Amino acid sequence: xxxxxxxxxxxxxxxxxxxxxxxxxxxxxxxxxxxxxxxxxxxxxxxxxxxxxxx
Amino acid sequence: xxxxxxxxxxxxxxxxxxxxxxxxxxxxxxxxxxxxxxxxxxxxxxxxxxxxxxxxxxxxxxxxxxxxxxxxxxxxxxxxxxxxxxxxxxxxxxxxxxxxxxxxxxxxxxxxxxxxxxxxxxxxxxxxxxxxxxxxxxxxxxxxxxxxxxxxxxxxxxxxxxxxxxxxxxxxxxxxxxxxxxxxxxxxxxxxxxxxxxxxxxxxxxxxxxxxxxxxxxxxxxxxxxxxxxxxxxxxxxxxxxxxxxxxx
Lengths: 55, 249
Fold this sequence. Notes:
The complex is a heterodimer of chains A (55) and B (249). Chain A is mostly helical and 55 residues long. Chain A is 80% helix and 0% strand. Chain A has helices spanning 7-12, 17-54. The radius of gyration of chain A is 21 Å and the shape is rod-shaped. Chain A starts with 6 loop residues before the first helix and ends with a helix. The mean pLDDT of chain A is 91. Chain B has a domain at 60-200 and 213-240. Chain B has helices at residues 12-44, 58-85, 88-120, 128-149, 153-167, 170-180, 200-232, 237-248. Chain B is globular. Chain B is an all-alpha fold and 249 residues long. The A-B interface holds A 1, 3-4, 10, 13-14, 16, 19-20, 22-24, 26-27, 30-31, 34-35, 38-39, 41-42, 44-46, 48-50, 52-53 and B 42-43, 46-47, 52-54, 56-57, 60-61, 64, 99-100, 103, 106-107, 110-111, 114-115, 117-118, 216, 219-220, 223-224, 226-228, 230-231, 234-235, 239-240, 242-244, 246-247.
């Protein structure tokens, strides 16, 4: 942990914070949204299969 | 118990069981590798002597760019297999890979822009590497639009396979672009034929993040393949039985 003196020092990234966190932030959002959408699609297909059984 | 052959998991019903079993483990690997990779990349690895802190974008940029190319080749291969041998699951896999490949292509372009600005002074330049990667994004989006636009799934698969296979020529162009043309984009830091031109802690962090992205890709593609199989095989006995089981459970 020696290279970072504080949290604000870590977030500032020597003035490159905007670029680094802008890159990581969007990547993180994409990699949360995509699995969520895929899981939702699977759940919906599954529910449709169950409804077929009832009808 | 029936014998397991290489074709065993080609049946969507068998694939469903396999994918359902391994997906939680893939997520575990993804989370663990992400935590280790980010720890190494942000806490252990020092700043770069030339680029300062901004180089830390490499830990997601390069793995995303690698995945964008590997997934395209995987998509084209499965699409071709599905087309040539009428393997249902192969075409479903091809369709399932496309959005994940497109997402990684977008991430590679996005993180590249955020690295290019502090390093080159420009978010975007029309150099061969960046342009061919942008074409890759359009190939993914074109494939997705094409297969969805055709109502008959088999015909959609065939049209998509043709586009995917022809478009595969772009992947070696992306890979070798930094050698074939005088690009602003830097040359490869890691290659199969040469020693890596990176400090080992940085390289380790990048490779661990690559493992995380691989696990992510398998997990999401498996989930989406299961969704596509359930949509397409609607009315099939295996699906009805499985749906019945989950209802009772």
